[in-house]
Input
Amino acid sequence: MQISDLTDKFIREVREYYGNEFIPLHRPIFDEIEKQYLFDCIDSNFVSSAGKEVDSFEMQLCDITSSKYAKSTVSGTAALHLALHALGVGSNDEVLTQRLSFVATANAISYCNAAPIFLDVEPETGTLCPHLLRDFLEKNTKIDNGGRKNLSTGKNIAACVVMHTFGHPARMQEIKSICDEFTIPLIEDAAEALGSYIGEEHVGKNSLLTTYSFNGNKIITTGGGGCVTTDDSLLAERIRHLATTAKTPHQYEYFHDEIGFNYRMPNLNACLGLAQLKKLDYFLNNKRKLALIYKNLFENSGAHFWTEREGCKSNYWLNAISFNTSEQKQYFLEKTNKKGVMTRPVWTLLDKLPHFAYCHVLKTGVAEKIYDTTVNIPSSAI
Output
């Protein structure tokens, strides 16, 4: 199919589904329940970092993700920073992660004064390639003084961060096996993956710590917010302590035993999150219906629609299509946006950003191919 015909067909289908107004990439869905929860919170006067709704929100996140502990935060970026900091990542460390991700993944590593090492992604999901992970660790590292060192820099490989791109689960069993073999602590950046499963397990069960985002464009939103989940009681307590400015418990004295962070989620945001969680299954079902519409639309069109890999269940947070050429991608982007249908290219590869140009990169060309040909398309739940 010609790119012009495919683009026109796409615009017609999207307008039939969403209507004739401007169509955003991903908007939050609110109704009366959110308003009522927020009114009740305001009436209670507990709108800041104390309130029973924060506890309730965290308990529900534990139930959904099958985690023993959840600590809510002001953002997904703050959650990832806490996770890295809690593992002791610091200035003489490096952290393995993927080239294709939102910038927050690499920023959080930098907040710890550590350096990212960018590995290429695998083509099916756009997530960290386990083969490259093993290849890097085998060829470029060694055990030294109880830690795994980078042979070229002498720095410690302190952690590995895997991001579930657009909500599609990474190959976590393979990655976990490699990280265990090489004694590398593993973190999942599941900012986009609430409601995504690997087999029967929610994402997050293959790592020490998992982080989520509840920004306004995520599958459920607290306005701004995030959380860290874990099954490790010591790490959970460590994160709670760090997030509350490292204040020691006391009836009235203010004493802080280390540098901490004011990363607690306000109760007002947790109220919004509780209302949204009531609709999570509804959002997930609607997203799967939309993904099926897109899958049928792009079948035999010459464009590739991103689907969940075998054995996984994606939340289809942000739908994506890949064209054969960068020229087709550019045509599609320009025409859809001109017609009031928001589409966006994927993120600039992290190692292409000026502040990460110094970082070690292991390339195969897969991330470049995705960047050159792939577009995100409207994905709101209704």
Notes: The radius of gyration is 21 Å. The longest strand covers residues 156-163.
